[in-house]
Amino acid sequence: MKRIISALALALAIGSLSAQTLNVQVGNVTYLFPANQAGEMTYTNGTTLTVMGKAFALSEVDNMWVDETAVTDNLVSIVYGSSSATVTVAGNVAKYVTPTLSGAHVTIAQSNTDAVSGDEITYQLSGSTSNGSLTLGGSYKCTVSLAGVTLTNPNGAAVNITNSKRIQLSAKKGTTNTLTDCSSGSQKACIYSKGQLQLQGNGTLNVVGNTKHGIKSASYISIKNMTLNITSTVGDGINCEEYMEIKSGTVTLSGIGDDGIQCDLGGTTSTGITTDHEDEDSGNIYISGGTLKVAVTAAAAKGIKCDGDLYITDGAITATTSGGGAWDSDDLKTKACAGLSADGNIAISGGTLVLTSTGAGGKGISGDGTFVLSDSASITVTTSGQAVVASSSGTISTVSNASTLDKYSTNYKSSPKGIKIDGAISITGGTVSVTTSGAGGEGIESKSTLTISGGQVTVNAYDDGINSSSHLTISGGYVYSRATNNDGIDANGNCYIQGGLVYAISASSPEVAIDANTEGGYQLYVTGGTIFAIGGLESGASLTQSCYSAGSSSSSSSGHGPGGGGGSSSSWSTNTWYALTVGSNVYAFKTPSSGGSGLVVSGASTPTLKSGVTASGTSIFDGVGYYPATVSGGSSVTLSSYSGGNSGGGPGGW
Fold this sequence. Notes:
Strand order of the largest sheet: 9-10-12-14-17-20-23-26-28-32-35-41-44-47-50-53
Oligomer: single chain
Strand content: over 45%
Structural class: mainly beta
Number of strands: 65
C-alpha cells in the first residue's frame, strides 16, 4: 500500500510533464494514462482513484508506476501466453472497457465510445495459446486486429463477438494468424459475430472450425485484401445472413464439411438491393474481385450458395465439388452438388470462373431465377459424374444409362448438367465452355427461354448441348454445341437462328443438330447467321435464308441423307478440317470422330465448302474452329439446295 500511495502522490504531481505515463495494474490488466491527457485525477475517501473517468478501488490495484511508455489512443492490446493473457488499455478508452480474464480466456465488455476521438476502439491480439479465447460484448463499432496470434479454444469459439454492431476483423500486414475452436460445443463457428463482420487487412488468417462453421455472422460479411484460409470445417466454410461481399484478397476454402460459402436471408422478406447496401437484407452475394478457391466434398454441397441473387463482376473463382447426390426429405426430391447455386438470379459480367463437379448429379451452375452472362466474363464448367437417382424410400444410387434415367420422375433424379437454370438464360457477351460426360448431362439448360446475342459459347455434352424448355433464339455471337447422345441445339418451343456463327453437332439419327418441338406445333426458323450443322435440321423448318446440304469429298451415300424431306444425299468426313467461305468471311471447322447424319451449311450469301484443308487463324470453340481463318489445300465439296429436315429428334429434351 505504501508503494501505491507513493506512486499516487507522484502521479498527482506530474500533470505538466507531458512525456510521463501513469500505469495502473489490476491483475493482468494494465491501464496507461498519458499525463497530457489525464487532467484532474481525484482521490476519494482514501479508497478510490479516478483517472480520465476510470475509477479504481485501491484495494484492487496491484501496482502503480510512472514511466515514459508511449500510448496509442483507442488501443486495447491483448497478448496471449500459454496459460494466461495480459491486457493493456489506452487511457482515453479505459472508462469504456471492462476486461475479465480467466487464464488465457479474455472477455471484454465495451460501453459507449461516442466521446472517443475516432469513435472506435481497436483490440489487438498477439501471442499464442492452446487454451484461450476472446469474447467481445457491447453495442458499438470496433476493430479486432490480428497481429500474429495463434489461438485455440478447447471449450468453444476462438473469437465470439456478441456485439451486434459492425466489427472490422483485420489481419495486420506481414502477420500470420491461426484460430481454432473445439471439436464439441454449442458454438456456431470458430469465429462468430452477432453483427456485421468486415474481414480485411493485408495479413493472413487461418481458420479451423471443428464443431460447425469456420466463420459465421448473424448479419453481413465483407472481405477485402485479406488472405483467408479456412482449412477444415464440420459445417460451412463461411456462413452469413443479409448479404455478402468479396471485394479483393485471396480466399481458400478446403476440407469443408458442407457448403463453401452460404448467405441466407436474415428475415422473411427481401429488401432487394439498397444504396450502398444500407440496411440490406437480400440474401445476395456480390463478388467484385480477388481470388476465391472453394473445394467441397459433402453430398449435395454447394461451392457458393445464396438465398438471393449472385452477382459476379470480377475476380478469379475456382469451385470444385466432389460429393454425390442426396435425398431431401423436406422437399421430397433428389439434390446434388453445384459450384454456384442461387435461389434467385445469377448475373456474371466479369471475372474468370473454373467450375468442376466430379460427383453424381453435380452441376457447375444451378439457379432458380434467371441467368445473364455478359461483357468480359469467362466461365469453364466440367462435370464428369453420372446421374443420381432415388428410390421411393429415398435410397440414393447412380445411373449411367440414359434410357434407365428416363424411367425416373423429375424429383427422383438429378443429372450432371453444366449450367441448369429454372428461369430465362441470356448470353450477350463473355465466353463459356461446358463439358459434360454423364447420363442426362446437358450442357446449358433453361427451363424457360434461352437467348444468345453475343459472346462465345462452347459446349460438349452427353445429352442435349444447349436446351430450352421454351423458345430458343440465337441472333449473334459464336456458338458451338455438340451432343454425343442427343440434339446439338434443342428447343421445346420455336428455335430461331437469326444471326451469329453456329456450329452444331448431334448424335446419329434420329437426333438432329438443330431441333425445335414440331410435335408440339413449334418450328425451326432460319433467317440469318452462318451455320455448320452435322446432323441436319429439324423437319418442317422455315428456311428464309438458303441452306445447303454437303456432298462428301470422299464418299457419298444414297438413301435417307440429311433432312430426308428434299435434301440431297450427303455425308461428311470424320476428324477433318473444313473451310466454309461466305462472302469475304472464311471459317474453319474440325469435325468430330462421330456425329449425326449429313452436313448442312448456311450463310448470308451462297457459301462454298472445302474439306481436308490446312487451317490457321484466330482459334474459337476451344480449338475446333478458326475465325477469321487462313486455309490452304483441300477439296471442293458439292453443295445442293436444302429444303428439308430430319423427322427425328423428338420434342426438345428427348
